[in-house]
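Structure ticket #2291
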Amino acid sequence: MISELKQELTNMINDVNSLNDLQNIKVSIFGKKGRITLLTKDMKDKTIEERRQIGQEVHQLKEYIEIIIKQKELFLIEKKINDDINNEAIDIYLPGMEFNSGTLHPLTITRNEIESFFNSLGFAVIEGNEIESDEYNFEKMNIPKDHPARDMQDTFYFSVEELLRTHTSPMQARTMEANAPDGPIRVIVPGKTYRRDEDDLTHSHQFMQIEGLVIDKNISLADLKGTLELFAKNIFGSNTKIRFRPSYFPFTEPSVEVDVTCHVCHGQGCSVCKQTGWIEILGAGQVHPNVIDNCGYDSNVYQGFAFGMGVERVAMIKYGIDDIRLFYNNNLNFLKQFDKIK
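Resolution: structure written out below.
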């Protein structure tokens, strides 16, 4: 009987193919109702000699089964390890996987470069709301009711009093009001602006603008020119020159358009600059006395200068890009060209 059970259990253990099944067999043999446990259940009805003999045989069977179970367990563990190694093996001769890393957008690169330059001159960087009121977008900036910018064809209106800002200039008024009546103020205001321009090669309904404002005593046009000259040399190269042309902006007086020498021909004249040697870069001027007075300062004591530039315009000139729409259509071939630029 014992020998038959021994052979049966041995065959059962040898046929097991998983550690989980082996554990179940172990319970069925040594558990409270296990095959070997039940062999000693009726020992009380046996004689002393019978109990001694049965006990010895059961003990030998138990030791034997424990040994082969342990051997089977070690075998299954080793087999699982080998299977895992084979299934998870890495072929070092296969070509590696290419991981594409992202890069900063050219407009972000240009904006960061502009901000870094003006930071070095002591300008603070502030941002404002993209939804503005008519009062701050137009009234505070000395833009009259009949100005074309107030036309529905030029500005995105939510209501009579709310609109998408057409420039970052409202933050000039808000900054002056927050600091009035004492100066000085030196800030730049980067951010998105919106106008109903045609979506052609050089215009977009949305564009990035950076506004600059300085308010202090004894500020002249010479301070503006010196600041912008340093800016142009820093962004476009040390040989870059600037020129002022008289212009008109409601919020500055006098007002100027600022040109830089063409980055392609270096002022000699080419098709890019239409043979003039110059490319328009931004608008600027002395802050209009009405704007200074509207925002809580005394224009007889304080003066200032302001300038505004399109980030797209700067990037197009700096990198020789001829279509503004390339900045917004997510063309990877275009964007990947800037992955080496810091």
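Closing remark: The chain has a mean pLDDT of 85.
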